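Ligand: magnesium ion. Inputs:
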Amino acid sequence: MVELHIIVFCFDRQKEALKKKLENFFPSHPDVKDIKILVAGEIAAGKSSFINSINSAFQGRISSRALVNSAAGNSHSFTQKLKGFTIRSGKKTLPFVFKDIMGLESETLAGAQIEDIINAVFGHVKESYKFNKEKVLTNEDQHYNSDPNLSDRSFCLVYDIAANIVHYIDDQLIDKLKDIRQKISDMGITQVVVMTKVDEACPLVKKDLRKMYTSKKIKEKMELCSAIIGVPLTNIFPVKNYHDEIDTDDDIDVLILKALEQIVQLADDRLENAESY
Ligand SMILES: Nc1nc2c(ncn2[C@@H]2O[C@H](COP(=O)(O)OP(=O)(O)O)[C@@H](O)[C@H]2O)c(=O)[nH]1
Ligand SMILES: [Mg+2]
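Predicted complex:
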């Protein structure tokens, strides 16, 4: 009993330490007020839920500002416009903004969409632009920002993949993801993978989220992700998003905050060196 109390206490302490660190974060560049992070991924990968889960972890209650697509078998992405979400802790707005982009559907993901994602990373796509799958945004369009400043640019691309579908990602999508990674890494921008829905991929983890790091199934999925997308294992973050919970939970929060801490750090490292690109 005593031991259990100690473990719970440590986990709680870890969460508070992570929260504090993130609450005190400040972008390392004086011209940048908040750091932008672009979130991409297939429909229903859990992009909106991830953004909401971050907010929930800070608020201590379930937050649902980014609309979650709950209809089963949905074929259309709910988020079709590029939309920025700030994260709040209490009354304080934290200096990072998550940009939720519409789903990448492997069968229809065409050159135009790849270009749009890359344009969005580099800050050329204005807020609220409604993506058109048929046509890439060009500099003639009023939604195209031809002269983005550092604040408009994203310094980390988060790609969400659901752990339970990692094995089914087709070659077409893999090629396109590699293409995106290549283009952004030429500009020094890191791509990370947030592997969502770990609860759906491993029954042990579903029961106890702390089994995450000893679960063979999760390790296998992370290794596969790393191999097919070419993102190092250290840049793959397994999480369980809030999806049907009524209250927040320390175990869920710690994983979400750990992923966020790494993402923010990677983005800020790039921002620091941004002028050399
Ligand atoms: N079991 C489980 N379901 C999740 C998780 N994350 C998201 N979901 C569910 O997956 C569906 C799609 O999520 P959504 O955030 O709308 O995906 P998006 O299209 O990528 O923005 C919703 O029904 C969510 O409740 C997770 O970590 N575990
Ligand atoms: Mg969404």
